[in-house]
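Entry 14. Ran structure prediction on the chain below.
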Amino acid sequence: MFSKILIANRGEIACRVITTAHRLGVKTIAIYSDADANSKHVSMADEAVYIGASPVAESYLQADRIIAVALANGAQAIHPGYGFLSENPGFVQSVEKAGLVFIGPSATAIEAMGLKDAAKRLMENAGVPSVPGYLGESQDLDVLEREADRMGYPVLIKARAGGGGKGMRLVENREDFKELFEAASREGESSFGDSVCIVEKYITRPRHIEIQVFGDNHGNVVHLFERDCSLQRRHQKVIEEAPAPDMPVGVRKAMGQAAVDAAKAIGYSGAGTVEFIVDGSSGLREDGFWFMEMNTRLQVEHPVSEAITGLDFVELQLRVAAGEPLPFAQEDLTINGWSFEARVYAEDVPKGFLPAIGVIEHLNFPENCSDFGAGSVRVDSGVRQGDAISPFYDPMIAKIIVHGPTRASALNLLTRALLQTHVGGTVTNMEFLSALAKHSEFSSADVDTDLIARNIDSLTSESAPPESVIALAAIASLGLLDKETDHSVKLWDELLGWCHWSSSAYTSNLVADGAAFRQQITIVDQHQFTVAGEGTSCELKIHHVSGSEFNVEHNGLQSSVNLVLNKQSVFVFYDSQSFTFERPDYLNAQADEAIGGDVVVAPMPGVVTVLSAKTGQKVLAGDTLAVLEAMKMEHALQAPRNGIVAGVLCAVGDQVVDGDLLIQLDSDNA
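Output, structure tokens:
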């Protein structure tokens, strides 16, 4: 076993690797950028070394600099995590040339699976079933359109070097092919440095099922069963589970063997995942699955497979890289129970899952959870309360992993764990995850990759704060509750609520999502309040339970509510929803009036990659005027109405932030 390793990554996966390394007595070296100087993975590691500026190209992709840090600080091996350099064969070769060990597969294996077209040809030669498609070198639009016509629509355009949903577009008809092909090609170039795309037939009732494989340097390869990753939005996974629902024994055996054959065909060593597209239209069949791609690294969703097998995959990675054989054979492996993983992101779901930034002012994870190996609820996270979600990296906050004896029990655990996860200071997808976990199709295991898109309106509807929540926030904002809800704010500095001859009354002014709430509060008793707003009035009985939890009675109904205050905000967590109320700062009140549909503004931080709008140009509502790249995903910015472009205030390559004015329409042409 190694005595010291360097982790060429950041965030959640760096923390995950450090946890196992320390359990095994292996020292760790972290690297960090300007944005990560005070991050969790830096504080967890035995040593941490500055690697460069915040953009990934100047820090976490600096292969030579990373290797130099490893050598200078006595590391014997480098763990790449996932993303960044984890599937870069050139990096592997450089690591090995420097006399270090790469904790992962060989450069040859990564290269074999790195391009989707070459990988599919290799798999076909190995007898692994593959989806029909065009794998030729030509990128001529006429050629690709003819191939798509031959397959029949719908088809998928995929950047051959892509992964994680990047560089992938679903094309429903020929009229959209050109625009979507160009978008996929651009995204492939920007994310992977390769614009070449392939075209595949799209399976109309698809399930995404993948097989976890492990190989060693002694020729042994096994599979560790399957994961169902069908719950996706924009081809990115949201909730994963293991094993797959309704998986017949014969199909599991056939898929597992196909995955092992794929790994053996490239002499695979370490952790890997073979992904299959599966026809779920009439039950899972032994002839109804096809190879999509192989991820030659540890997957984001690996914890669900750890949960059902009882194995620590990072430990296995370290042992295999150190030359040890796998400590088990295929017949030794069994499935124990059921596991789910939900990915918590800082993203604005109602705005189309746009990535968000902000400081995490409050963070609470489920009860009775710890790092790997303890309890039925596990949280893998790379952030802490007070950390900032940066525009430079993936906005993941945490992975919530649960394990139970059955699918139903594990799903109940997931629902409860999501209710107990509270994030304040940035918008998140928590309400969306909770709605998805409780959705009837998902709970009945009727899953496919279109489930989210099919139910997107009900899953992403915005919830206005209930009357009782607004009233509770108003009461708390004035310090009228008999406890400290947060150590940063003392709420009982004086005898608030005492009056000699009548009930005490107070006025609260709060703002939430641009709406102002002015509330008149009367203290009826120690735990009882009357709150009146514009045309509304309600009575609340409020009792402190423990920590940030309160019991609130309204109209005879008692609810559990979590409440957290800081100097400027009130965070209320209620029934899988979170609401943020701000105390307005009247000295900095904005006087500008809204200018409605006359402008196009940046909805998130990003880089302008395409700019089609020109001054004087006539546009129609819905026309794409620019394309913004954020978190390596493209977002089309469309004209809000018919009109004439009065001004273009950005250029291709500009780095913009949320709210920046990009394009102005002529107000006289509304």
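The two ends are 69 Å apart (CA to CA). Will compare against last week's run tomorrow.
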